[in-house]
Specification:
The protein is an alpha+beta fold. It has 6 helices and 8 strands.
């Protein structure tokens, strides 16, 4: 057996392999996104049955076989089993896992992405915050972490700092906000309120522990959805199965 390694991570997905095993995908702090086999995880008495499941955060001890990692031990920190009873919150959670799987990379430090996923899943179980707002916050902060954040603090054309009372426009093709003084505007530019711009700035820059500590009115939430959902879709090239289920439910 090769030397054992221990990683801090979260299970993004788990699929059956053979009669009793599972193949899991982990997002880890130390080695980025990796796959591992949990042998016997589908047996009723397996110590891996609970650990080799989506949404499980913990410490995973692995050994490297000839072609893959293999799970040797798991110490569960959080499993969020109660999320399974939350409809449609569970599908938002699976969508977040799919996005992390899409952006996660092998060999990189994914601590920030793991932290975002953790606080987002906790927020899904908070009845005081809209699930739609949780999705907006998660997607936009994810864009920021992955280097896809649009310019939202100043006009992308003239560099003027945004101020309340400005006529503002958002352009998907130009990846940011323009002031009404700059022209001609891109053909895809549309109006954005200063309040929406301020929320985007808050989502991008606030400490992780405060990220889901606010609410917005329905009209502002609808405006944020129009911006963030489309921006995320334009910067990903995959149809996410859980998102399709969510959209069908809504």
């Amino acid at each position: 057996m090769s030397d054992l390694i221990t990683v801090q991570g979260v299970v993004l997905s788990a699929m059956p392999v053979g009669e009793y095993d599972r193949r899991i995908v982990l997002l880890t702090r130390e080695r980025g996104k990796i796959a591992a086999f949990a042998k016997g995880a589908r047996r009723l008495n397996s110590p891996f049955m609970a650990a080799a499941s989506p949404f499980v955060f913990g410490n995973f001890t692995l050994y490297e076989g000839r072609n893959s990692y293999n799970l040797n031990h798991a110490e569960i920190r959080h499993h969020f089993a109660e999320l399974a009873k939350n409809q449609p919150g569970i599908y938002y959670g699976y969508y977040f896992l799919e996005l992390c799987d899409y952006f996660g990379r092998e060999g990189s430090d994914e601590k920030e992405l793991m932290n975002l996923l953790y606080v987002a899943v906790r927020a899904l179980m908070n009845p005081k915050i809209s699930l739609r707002l949780v999705r907006c916050i998660f997607e936009f902060r994810l864009m920021s972490i992955e280097g896809w954040m649009p310019r939202i603090y100043e006009c992308i054309s003239c560099g003027k700092q945004l101020e309340e009372g400005d006529r503002l426009f958002f352009s998907m093709s130009e990846h940011g906000i323009l002031c009404g003084e700059c022209g001609p505007l891109p053909v895809d530019a549309f109006r954005i309120s200063f309040a929406a711009a301020a929320v985007l700035q808050y989502i991008a820059g606030t400490p992780m522990q405060k990220l889901f500590g606010f609410t917005v009115k329905d009209d502002l939430l609808h405006e944020l959805e129009n911006i963030i959902y489309e921006y995320t879709a334009k910067n990903t090239d995959r149809k996410f199965r859980s998102l399709q289920i969510l959209e069908a439910m809504e």
